[in-house]
């Protein structure tokens, strides 16, 4: 291993996507630190399985790491940056959260005032740890120096030529369509259910758009337990659109769709389609 690949890297905090990032960092030769204080037993088990080193508290991660990656729900992105900056971190801070470019630049200002250098990041793809299934887009002057941390996969690094904000803009454009489209599909199914024509819509889709029944099922069932995370992302998408003069209503509405599914956070199994559609309509689920 080279000296570069043996860098000490802090990972805050290894959830589902953060675990895929952690697996990549470990595979690429980094010594990966995380902070277990206040984290769930599931997070502790996940970190141990990945081979992450528990530093205990965020302060210890900041004191030992030369690079820190923040992979958190969008609503927590600023708070993570403020905590790290307040502890005097002076290395390279990589924000890999689904936030608007404007938010990214605010986070950059927070960590740079604390003495760190900043890299903008945006992750696209599933958290399944399959090789090449996901990409970590990076931008800013220090982006190329971070890319070797992802040399072995499963997540691939893609360095953009643009400034800080470019990686986040790619994430907003991609997620704005992907998660926005899925929220719309779920809403269409809920509307058809409310009008009593869900079966008829599915029958028509099987004729005219054969992929749509399964896509709409996945838009509901695959996202229900993760919907709480997407609320903040849709808020950030609305902010990104507003910054260039585009309407924000698409993503304001998508955020409301995911908010209505928020009760399924951490449930052991996804709800049935009927249950999720009832939640979207704010009704009791029909008897089977």
Properties at a glance:
288 residues; alpha/beta; N-(1-d-carboxylethyl)-l-norvaline Dehydrogenase, domain 2; 2 domains; 8 strands
Describe the structure.
The protein is of the alpha/beta class and 288 residues long. The chain folds into two domains: 4-162, Rossmann fold (3-Layer(aba) Sandwich); 170-281, Orthogonal Bundle (N-(1-d-carboxylethyl)-l-norvaline Dehydrogenase, domain 2). The chain contains twelve helices and eight strands. It has an eight-stranded mixed β-sheet, with helices on both faces. Strand 1 (8-12), helix 1 and strand 2 (31-34) form a beta-alpha-beta unit. The longest helix has 29 residues, at 166-194. The N and C termini lie far apart (59 Å). Residues 1-5 have low confidence and may be disordered.
What's the topology here?
Blueprint: E1 8-12, H1 16-27, E2 31-34, H2 41-50, E3 53-54, H3 58-64, E4 67-70, H4 77-86, E5 92-95, H5 101-113, E6 117-124, E7 135-139, H6 143-146, E8 156-159, H7 166-194, H8 198-208, H9 212-221, H10 227-243, H11 249-260, H12 273-281
Parallel strand pairs: 1-2, 1-4, 2-3, 4-5, 5-6, 7-8
Antiparallel strand pairs: 6-7
């Amino acid at each position: 291993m080279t000296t570069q690949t043996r860098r000490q890297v802090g990972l805050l905090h290894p959830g589902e996507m953060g675990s895929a990032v952690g697996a990549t960092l470990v595979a690429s030769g980094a010594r990966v630190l995380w902070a277990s204080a206040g984290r769930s037993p599931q997070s502790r088990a996940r970190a141990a399985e990945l081979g992450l080193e528990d530093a205990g508290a965020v302060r210890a991660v900041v004191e030992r790491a030369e690079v820190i990656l923040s992979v958190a729900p969008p609503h927590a992105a600023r708070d993570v940056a403020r905590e790290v900056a307040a502890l005097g971190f002076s290395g390279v801070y990589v924000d890999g959260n689904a936030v608007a470019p404007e938010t990214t630049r605010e986070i950059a200002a927070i960590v740079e005032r604390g003495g760190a250098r900043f890299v903008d990041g945006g992750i696209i793809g599933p958290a399944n740890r399959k090789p090449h299934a996901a990409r970590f887009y990076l931008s800013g002057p220090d982006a190329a120096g971070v890319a070797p941390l992802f040399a072995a996969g499963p997540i691939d690094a893609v360095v953009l030529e643009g400034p800080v904000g470019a990686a986040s803009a790619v994430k907003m454009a991609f997620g704005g369509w992907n998660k926005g489209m899925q929220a719309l599909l779920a809403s269409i199914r809920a509307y058809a259910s409310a009008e009593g024509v869900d079966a008829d819509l599915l029958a028509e889709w099987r004729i005219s758009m054969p992929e749509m029944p399964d896509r709409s099922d996945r838009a509901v069932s695959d996202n229900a337990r993760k919907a709480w995370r997407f609320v903040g992302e849709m808020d950030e998408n609305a902010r990104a659109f507003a910054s260039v003069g585009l309407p924000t209503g698409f993503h304001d509405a998508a955020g409301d769709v995911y908010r209505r599914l928020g009760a399924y956070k951490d449930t052991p199994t996804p709800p049935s389609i009927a249950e999720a559609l009832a939640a979207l309509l704010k009704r009791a689920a029909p008897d089977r």
